[in-house]
Each structure stands twice: as C-alpha cells, then as structure tokens.
Amino acid sequence: MTSCLLSFLLLLLSSLGSSIMAAAEPAGCKIRITDKGLEMLKSETLKFVEEELSNISMPEMKGKEGRFQYTITDVKITELNLTHADLKFIPEVGLLFDVQNSSISLSFNRRILYWFFFDTGNINAAAEGVNINTAVDLIRDEEGRLKINNITCDAKITKMSAKFSGTLGRVYDFLARFLTTGMRFLLNQQICPALNHAALVQVNSLLETIPVRTEVDKYVGIDYSLITDPVVTSRSLDMHFRGMFFDLSHNNVTLDNLAVDPVLPEYDRMVYLALSEFFFDSGMFAYYTAGIFQMDIVNEKMPKDLEMLLRTTYFGAIMMLNPALVDAPLSLQIAVNAPPKTSIKTSGATVVMTAIVKVMVLPPGLPTVQLSSMTMETKFNAKVSIRGKRLAVHADLRRFKIFSNQSALESLALIPLQAPLKTMLQMSVVPLINNWTKRGVRIPLADGMDFVEDVVEYHNGYIVIGANLHFTKGLREMMSTETEPRTSTV
Questions:
Q1: What secondary structure does DSSP assign to 127-183, as a single string?
Q2: Integer Rg of the chain from CA
Q3: pTM for the predicted model, two decimal places
C-alpha cells in the first residue's frame, strides 16, 4: 500500500514538473503593440466599422396604424458620423471599440394607404445618440495562432427622427414617431450581428494569413506559434512566439531553448520586436542539420595566389605521395563541424563558427587525396535590420584562426596561409553568406503592415527592435486580397 502511494506521488510530482516546465518555455520572439500603435490602428478600424455598418441590410417593414397602412422598403444608411470613437486595450481580455454619442443618417422608401389615398415617397431619418460598445476577447488557438475567441457587443440608439416628403407629407407626420420607433428597434438589432460577423469571420480570416509554421526557403521553416495567450495590459498587447527555425527534412529535430527570455520594457514606439539568442541559434542549427554549411573551393573559385601558396606549402607532401600529382588541381573542402553559436551583448551580436578545412589534391581519373586537415575558427559580427516585414542579417568577418589537426609543427607551417585564407573568406565566402541572408525572414505581421523608422537595441541575450507601423493597405483591402490562409508546413 505504501509503495503504491509513493509511486502515485512520484507520478503526480513528475506530471506537475512537466507541466511547469512546459508553461515556463521561454519565447524566442516577442512582439508588443503599444497604445501608440493602437492609436494608428484606430483610424483603420473606424473605416472598417463604417463600411460594415453601411452594408447593413434592413428587412421590409409592413404594418397598420388606425386607418393608415404602410410599407417601408430599401432602407439604406447614407452617412455615418462616428466622431466619438475610441480603440483601447482591456487588461487580461483584448480590445475595446467604443463609440459614444454619434449619429447615423438613413433613407428609405414608403408606400402608405390612407382611406382611398395612396402615397409613395422617400423618408430621410437620423439616428442620434448612437452608442456602440464592442469588447473583443483575444486568445491563442490550437495551432498557436492569434484568434478572436468571442465578441461582446452592446448597441443603443437614444433618439431617431424622420422627415417625410411627398403630397401628404405634412398630413401624416404624426406617423413619424411610430415608424422611427420600429426603425430604431430594427437598427439596434442589426448593428451587433454585423460587427460580430466582421470580427469572428473577416478579422479571423485576416489573422489566418499571418504565418505560424511556414517555409523560409527550400531548406528550413520557422515556427511562429504563440506559446501562451496574448498578454494584455492597459498599455500594450504582448505576443510570445516560439520563434524557432527547423530543418524541413527533419522537422522533429529541434533545439532546446535555454536562452534568456527577452524583456520588453518600453512603450514609446508603436511596435516592438524582441529576438533572443535562441531565435538565431535555432536558425543556425536548422541549416546545419540540413547540411548547408559545406562548400568546395576548387578551380576558378580558388584565388590564384592562394592556389600557388598551397602548392608551395604542400609541395613536399605531394612529392612524397606521388611526383606525378604536382600539377593536379587542388581544392579546399570546408565543412562546419558543429552548429554555429550566437552571442548577443550590449556591444552587439556575434556568431562563432568552427569548421574542418581539408586540402585535397584531385588527380584526373583517380580518387582524391587528402594532403592536410585543419580546424578553422571564425567569429562574425552580425548586424540585424528590418526591411518592411522581413528581418535581415549582415555579417562581417571579425576574427579568423586556423590550426592543424595533425601536429603542432604543421600548425606553424600554416601561419603563412592565415592571411590569404582570411582574404578568401572575406572576398568569396562572406559575400555569399550575406547574399543569402539579405533576403531575410518574414516576421509575424499581416500583409499590408510594415515596420518603419526602426531602431535596434542590443541587450544581454536578446535584441529589441522598436519601430512605427505603416499601412500599405487598408483593413478592407487586406481582407479582400488575403481570402485564403497561408500554406503551413507541418
């Protein structure tokens, strides 16, 4: 009995420990939208809401009042004056769109029968004291995507008036109060369903266009799934993403996140992006497991002065192997032997990479012969920047060192190779790396939103990029051009 109880307690503790560890997973990438960013979003949201309300479809009204029989058709909203509108954060919930003391102008056609008199005409109506309170609940869905989970809406129209035109307009002005009461009731009933559909269907469709787990290129993908529900305060909306690259051919082989959890302390700009060392290390790890960090430098790829120096350095070794190989082509085979590591300090970001360099002789029609094996240690300065919604990195060679894997004596003989090999890296390899990385990787923003006026700050263990937002499309255009979810890679 005691052993069973002990086993149960151990199992329970193990389960709790696993849950705590899972909940404590650091974010590789964080994005904060501040109240200043929300202020810019307000104008786009207001345009979108006005368009949605303008498209409200009102049912036909029929009825009888005393000796009057009436039919109301073709109800149209002609003007919205949502001047007193606000968009703000609701702590621990999401967003609040609040409209107070605004007005809506409408027009509709009437057909009225009074005794034997039949009259038609147009009615212009005005709804005043329009108050709309809409709360949007934001969550992380099962795929790790930001989603509107629920919307709470309350709409009220304080007063509505109508002005009749036509031959009998003044005769039955007394009907205005009766008709506008019914119209106010119907309009009240239409506002919230229209906004509910806009948020739960159209805005969620837009959110589905933001990449979650998607390809970067033909070698690697990136996982931008949210690891927690969004964190909402009175000043900001914080989203914590996994921010992890993965090898497309081995997408279950991933790197553990042991990096510092980025901190976002500021609110001065519209948006902030924080990236930890894990974000960059996982990218290096993914490309390493994909086998990308390998290259052969041979024939026209090898600088002539470097080839001459290699022949001079290894002349004796070649003669000892086979004098007939003296004029055979030489090659350098470079293969990174461990995933590169990123280090981010307040002074900047660096990447350390080690590789095995083999000097090979290539006799025509015969197997290649290894002349030497050496270890190359390199350190690069990495400069991070954002173009629109793409994150790019530019590398500069900072430190270079080679030493023999065979003997200390050979390491001394390699000293003359240090300078030409470093020049070869700077002239050939580094430009290839930068040409590859300048394409960048997309950050998790919807199409139509770009970063502008960005400032990069380096902290111990992570980078913070503060920027403002620029809309290249309106919300309506963003939704109409992104009707299908972006293809994900599993």
A1: EEEEEEEEEEEEEE-TTS-EEEEEEEEEEEEEEEEEEE-STTTTTTTTHHHHHHHHH
A2: 34
A3: 0.84
Q: b/e for 438-461, b at 16 or more Cβ within 10 A?
A: eebbbbbbbbbbbbeebebeebeb
Q: How many CB atoms lie within 10 A of CB 282?
A: 27
Provide CB contacts within 8 A for 188, sequence distance 6+: 155, 156, 157
Query: How many angstroms separate the CA atoms of 158 and 104, rounded?
Result: 12
Could you tell me which residues come within 8 angstroms of residue 39 by beta carbon, excluding any fewer than 6 positions away? 87
Mean predicted confidence (pLDDT) in 59-71:
76
Give me the phi and psi of 263, to 5 degrees please.
-115, 135
Quickly list DSSP for 249-271: GGTT------SPPP-----SSSE
d(CA 358, CA 462): 35
- Residue found by looking up tokens 């012969």 in the block: 369
Token pair recorded at residue 223: 């996982």
User: What are the pLDDT digits (tens) for 386-424?
Assistant: 988 899 999 999 998 998 887 777 778 788 888 888 888
Torsion of CA 197, 200, 203, 204, to 10 degrees: -150
Going by C-alpha positions, the residue among 10, 26, 58 that lies closest to residue 278 is 26
Enumerate residues 6+ apart whose C-beta is below 8 A from 12. none
Highest mean pLDDT of the ranges 196-200, 299-303, 342-346, 363-367 = 342-346
Query: Can you spell out the DSSP letters for 302-371?
Result: S-HHHHHHHHHHTHHHHHHH-GGGTTS-EEEEEEE-S--EEEEETTEEEEEEEEEEEEEE--TTS--EEE
Convert the pLDDT of each residue in 79-124 to its tens digit: 888 888 899 999 999 999 999 999 998 888 878 776 777 777 788 8
Q: Distance from CA of residue 331 to its chain's centroid? A: 42
Going along 38-93, which residue ranges are E strands?
61-65, 68-81, 85-90
CA distance 387 to 216: 16
Residue type, 91: P
Residue 89 in 3-state DSSP? strand
Q: Tokens at residue 412, please?
A: 């001394």
Nearest Cα to Cα of residue 275 among 260, 286, 287? 260
Distance CA 267, CA 115 (A): 69
